[in-house]
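Final report, closing paragraph on structural work. Over the funding period we assembled a curated collection of sequence-structure pairs, and we close with a single example.
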Amino acid sequence: MSVPAAWVVPDWRAPGRVRAFSTTRAGGVSEDEYASLNLGLSSGDDPARVAANRAIVRGHLPGDPVWMRQVHGTAVANLDAWAAGETPVADAAAVSVPGRVAVVLTADCLPVVLARGDGERVAVAHAGWRGLSAGVLEAGVSALGGDPAEAFAWLGAAIGPRAFEVGPEVREAFLDADAGAGGAFAPHGTGKYLADLYALARRRLAAAGLRHVSGGGRCTLTEPDAFFSYRRAKASGRQGTFAWIDPAG
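Its predicted structure, as stored:
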């Protein structure tokens, strides 16, 4: 199942039946700050346009995605037990039912796709600094099951290390759990730091046992034509990162 060239498909070595992609701003019907493929219903955009955008994406998926209410936490929704009409309150989702689609929405936070080495289960996670420091990636790896050393992870587009200015409380939140995390923070002005979400995520994934991690390198804030960014515009849309197991695989 092909996707528009403007969207982002993981460059990784996950099993072929594992499918995933991230949308960009391209290909939708929303206007102004939400132009054009905004997928966030709570973003302030016209709900009819968001619904039309979601329908556009649905045309590239094997089934309806399970949209969640994200709260910057560490809960993982088990989509194998999902019932139609339910809206999980979680920041990650795992699934092994072929054709059932997991999704997270982001606009600066880091989307991460996880795949078990045997291709039997996939997961997605929404990793802002709060969720990342609290352990949302570790929770996603645990929900994936199998041997973490054989699993794959792909880091989608997030705010980049030269753009993500944070206060000392963010640095301390990571250092409390990992004394070596200080290398992901560069001093930036008085009492401020530039944080590298990609480096922090790689540290967490490596500590969880993963050896196969790819992606990263994009910046949602400094690539305005490609990505929505909440830091760039509070009235911002959301891009989606989707993952599933191919029912034909």
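The longest strand covers residues 239-245. The radius of gyration is 17 Å. We thank the funder for supporting this effort.
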